[in-house]
Amino acid sequence: MTGLRNECDNCDRRHFLRVSACAALAVGRWSRFGVRAPPNLVVLLTTTTHGTARTTSRDLGVTMGFEEAARSSRLFGGEVRLERIAPEQLARRLARGTSNVGLIGGETTAECLALASAAPHSPYIYMNTLCAADDLRGRDCRRQMFHVAASERMLADARATADESTTVAAWDASLQAFGADTLNQRFRARFSRPMDGDAWAGWFAVKALAEGTLRAPRPSTAGLIAYLEADHTGIDGHKGRPLSFRSWDHQLRQPLYLSSPARPTPIEVPHASADSSRDSRDVLDTIGATRTTSTCHFPE
Amino acid sequence: MKLPPTVAFLLIASAARGQTTGQSGLIFVSNEAGHSISVIDARTGRVESTIPVPSRPRGIQATRDGKFVFVAVSEDTLVRVARRRDAIAVIDVATRRVVRELKSGTDPEQFAVTPNAAVIYASNEDAGTVSAIDVRSGKISSTAVVGIEPEGVAVSPDGRWVYITAETSNSISVIDVARKKVVANLLVDARPRGVAFSPDSRRAYVTAEIGGSVTMIDVATREILTSQPLDGGEAKPVGIIVSPDGRRVYVACGRSNAVAVLDAQTLKPVARVSVGRRPWGVTLTPNGDMLYVANGLSNSVSAVDTKTLAVTATIPVGAKPWGLVFVGKP
After folding, report:
1. CB contact under 8 A, A75 and B147
2. Residue B266 is part of a domain; what is its CATH number?
3. How many C-beta atoms lie closer than 10 Å to residue A285's C-beta?
4. Is the dihedral of CA A143, A145, A148, A153 positive or negative?
5. What is the mean pLDDT of residues A23-35?
6. Residue A48 pLDDT
7. Within an 8 Å CB–CB cutoff, is residue A71 touching chain B?
8. Does B102 reside within a domain?
9. Of B185, B215, B255, which has the smallest distance from its Cβ to A11's Cβ?
10. Is residue B10 part of a domain?
11. Chain A neighbours among B 97-126 (CB < 8 Å)?
12. What is the number of structural domains in chain B?
């Protein structure tokens, strides 16, 4: 439960459009149980010279996630910035981080692992959006690495419930319930293309970072990590259940969607109606590595 | 309180025989997929007329004198903006006809009417704004930016405050009616949907669909007083209303197919009433004796006696009932 609030005399449209002015005014009035630093976040998105369909899609999701997070955070006196950065400049940029820093990028397992280890002595969180490799959640797990991308194990567990022509994705542009329709409409209106699983991952990665920045009891990367891995945390990804990261390997618990040419509407796994009274975390833990099968030991 | 299956079956069986609900008045029900308003005679528990509306109706409210019902109608979301006919339709209760359409902002979903019926505040879901519509002139007098995906709107009974929930931003924006602007934003649990004030305007109650909770706010200090998870956080609470005596809060819990009854002071659950599938809108008679619930996936309205908490009738209405409002007979 949070008591976060912002008393802003200048939250009307005129000031909303004048972004920096409103943010500055709002920050001065921001309060939560007394004085605290404003809830600011910097999102670093690595640039690439060899963009693929997947990175392009993910980066559009990040762009929309940033625009929405900036707008939502501004209501509470917080600021979100997005910086695109070449991988070779990353270590130096991370070394001068002041506010919460979230890093997004990478497509291959090697790239994702390199970004998770880019600056061992600088506080930041790496949000893995495209790499499914189980080793990143096991042998190579990192305290500062969180996985929005579904793991190989989760994808295999979901696929095991269907026939071979089926694809598994973290999102589907035809989803409707629990605000999925509005998210799909916003993405389509913004980019004139449907939101796919990679775009959703980029969008959600920024949302999770920004929401954690607003809600974490401590305004630091350590505080943000503690918030994201806490058992009581639940973030709305427009998938109908509160989403959370498994504390043992930082994998996002989330429903996946099976689709095939023969089926107009995707099937949700685990299914939405499964054990409606059961804890969402328990239901979502039926796909992927469990606490007992996980091989992750976070290096401290 | 969960009813045993046999009791629930008997209640449904009695409802099917059209048992009366004992109240004098009308219940106007917006049928989102049916593009119509079902008008239920509360005394007989039957639909006495059906009013066609131009497009998808959702939020529905009545003036205090019971002469007019307002309903938010929005085009299907695939209709291009330039061709949209988004509006607040005005229904004359006496003739059961749409007599006027107030131009709203885009995609109106929920709205609230000031106690003097002078201004309607409507959330514009796709624009992330709230429009204040002057009822007399039919013009939008001001527009305020709120959180992303605004949804629930409520005006405090003293007419001083408007609270607007925003589902993506997890926010409540507070509009000062006299100053005509947003004066505060509160961060609440995930996906806030419905909001309702206590009759004395001192408390506001907010449902969070994904947070699975109800939050109580002190209106004077704008502090969050407490948050109560329902069904262990799995209930998907949406529609909410406070009893006229200020002692109970009724919450439609979509996934639980039930209405949670909470103590308005502590938010502790005191009972649970099983209704139809995916209950959404809720309304009460002015004396608080009867509660009506729109069951979105059952195409029905449940009538609940608030003294016994028994479902006294289940009334078939149009397709996908969304919201409903009770209008006393003049």
Report:
1. yes
2. 2.130.10.10
3. 16
4. negative
5. 40
6. 86
7. yes
8. yes
9. B185
10. no
11. 125-126
12. 1
